[in-house]
Amino acid sequence: MRAYAIRRLLALIPTLLFASLIVFITVRLIPGDVIDLMLSQNDISADKKSRAQLEAALGLDTPVHWQYLRWVGAILFEGSLGRSLWQNTPVTELIAQRMPITFELGFLALLVALCVALPVGIWAAIRQDTMGDYLGRSFSILMLAVPSFWMGTLVMVFPSIWWGWSPDIQFVAFHVDPLRNLGQMMPPAIILGCALSAVTMRMTRTMMLEVLRQDYVRTAWAKGLNERLVVIRHALRNALIPVVTLIGLQAPILIGGAVIMEQIFVIPGTGLMLLDAVSQRDYPIVTGVFLIVGVAVQLINLIVDLSYGFLDPKVRYR
Amino acid sequence: MPPSPLLQVRDLTTEFRTERGTVRAVNGVSFDVFPGETLAIVGESGSGKSVTALSVLRLIPTPPGRIAGGEVLFDGQNLLNLTEHQMQRVRGNSIAMIFQEPMSSLNPSLPIGMQIAEPLNVHHNTPWAKAIDAAKTLLSRVRVPDAARRVDAWPHQFSGGMRQRAMIAMALANAPRLLIADEPTTALDVTVQAQILDLLKEVTRETGSSLILITHDLGVVARYADRVAVMYGGRLVESGTATDIYERPSHPYTIGLMASVPRLDSAAGSRLTAIDGQPPDLAALPPGCAFAPRCRNVHARCGEAVPVLREVAPNHLSACFLHDT
Ligand SMILES: Nc1ncnc2c1ncn2[C@@H]1O[C@H](COP(=O)(O)OP(=O)(O)OP(=O)(O)O)[C@@H](O)[C@H]1O
Ligand SMILES: [Mg+2]
């Protein structure tokens, strides 16, 4: 299994190279480049000379493929993702500040999603076609239909109108004040988690229904087990394999959702930084964030694949 | 005085609700199983054998199924009146069941040993370590070679025959007084079939437990059963000792079955397929005898009323109007 993991990690490299190349080029294709922005903000007369100076200073005067090779070289040999074009801070430093916040949000959202999806999905399956099943399925359809940015906006707007409550704008890190931090993080995490739980819940229900019809579940009943043991020990583990796959596939959606939630709830995570960077055409930040997100998504998929070995004894990695 | 029966099934009726209406898969079936004996239930596919067995253990999937009536007296106690919780204490403890499909009847994601040990842990709170030890003994008792090592194996590492042995070990864990084996060898190679049946016979003889052996293999019946119950279209049409059924079959359906077997002593492996016509459609049973459309001796009465079981010889019952004349 170790060898398998290492091979998978090596296989990451070409994927990341290709993906980063695409991002590298597309950010530069957004109309209105960073030089225009800088010139318009600094009131420098936009003559040819100052433009050339700026480009040279920012390293944007060489052809794109050359810039890309330099960028890759810096990652490989210096472990550097370059510097922000506006703040001149190293991108790695900026990401290191912001990434933990986004991960926390994503992790909390995933936790909420699982805490909702698994119990409701299991319950809906073992009480198929009862009131509970209908409620669970309706909830899931509702969550699928309602976009989370809209839910987020509602949560920002209505409580403040009705009760004068609004989320903290002043962000507090978890290690500074865990309770206040969670108070800020939970509303977006719950909204994101509920949206995520919709599909997972349906998948859990479908798979449980499928597994509960299997012969080995009948064997479990024939042994005299009670419902709890039949469901948890004999059915759940077998139903969980596709559910875990689905959760892995949802990782990019989770990250995309986190970006939107950070924007609505003004949480200074990677998402907020990314949006700012895109509007400021801060190319190194954009490419850097995408690279890290790419690595994260691939790692999540690797963890998902490795977890099959735990869930399904027939899977042996070579 | 003859011993009292261990299991008495009386007028058992089990229905399924389907799109085509209510299907009576088991229709007023009654039979007894005495301590230590082997009762074979035979009949063609769809005649209600499995549903009868599952009804005894109350394992009918509900919905769509439902035990609509009758009694299942085990040791004098009606299992149909027990609460689900009380029933759970019977299953896998005093009555155990072995299923047809060894490939899919074991949980693919739990080790064999744990699955065999589970009835001990559940019914007697045996600690897992001790229960797994017992599982080793059980595995070697059903002649799984290298049992001490193979308790840790996974089902996919076992062959079909080995899995069925593991299923038997699991069923034997709590020394049940009644073992129900639903076509335990249908999915296996011919050579393995005989080994498994010999094993079943041997372990039930050792423990003195009764065996209900469901099969559509007449060779198996001749060799292993003490008594035979023949089912057709959800009803019991004939029952008697194995000798009665083989040498003096009385119901036209049973006679047809026996005629399809070349010779009694070379009967191993013969199947119940040689009667002309189709098995009855349970959703649209004809009025009267369900076998009438295929029966050589059919006459007017057969389409009007359902014949009841009558004693044609001591302890030999048959449900046919022929016996009235
Ligand atoms: N889950 C179910 N839903 C609906 N109908 C069912 C169900 N299970 C069984 N039946 C009905 O009960 C009838 C008898 O089925 P059963 O499995 O008892 O037959 P069998 O005698 O065991 O046949 P086989 O030899 O093929 O195992 C079937 O023909 C079917 O119509
Ligand atoms: Mg069957």
Provide an overview of this structure.
Chain A is mainly alpha-helical and 318 residues long. Chain A has two domains: 2-78, no CATH class; 91-311, MetI-like fold. In chain A, 79% of the residues lie in helices and 0% in strands. Chain A has 13 helices and no strands. Chain A is globular and about 85 Å long. The mean pLDDT of chain A is 83. Chain B has two domains: 7-94 and 176-274, P-loop containing nucleotide triphosphate hydrolases (Rossmann fold, 3-Layer(aba) Sandwich), CATH 3.40.50; 107-174, no CATH class. In chain B, the strands form two sheets. Chain B has an eight-stranded mixed beta sheet, sandwiched between helices. In chain B, strands 2-1-4-5 form a four-stranded antiparallel beta sheet. In chain B, α4 (112-124) packs across α5 (128-141), α4 (112-124) packs parallel to α7 and α5 packs across α7 (160-172). Chain B is globular, with a radius of gyration of 20 Å. Chain B starts with 6 loop residues before the first strand and ends in a 7-residue tail after the last strand. The chains are: A mainly alpha (318), B alpha/beta (325). The A-B interface holds A 214-216, 218-226, 229, 233-234, 237-238, 311-314 and B 57, 59, 85, 88-93, 96-97, 99, 101, 104-111, 118-119, 122-123, 154, 156, 167, 170. Bound molecules: adenosine-5'-triphosphate and magnesium ion. The site of magnesium ion has 4 residues of chain B, from α1.
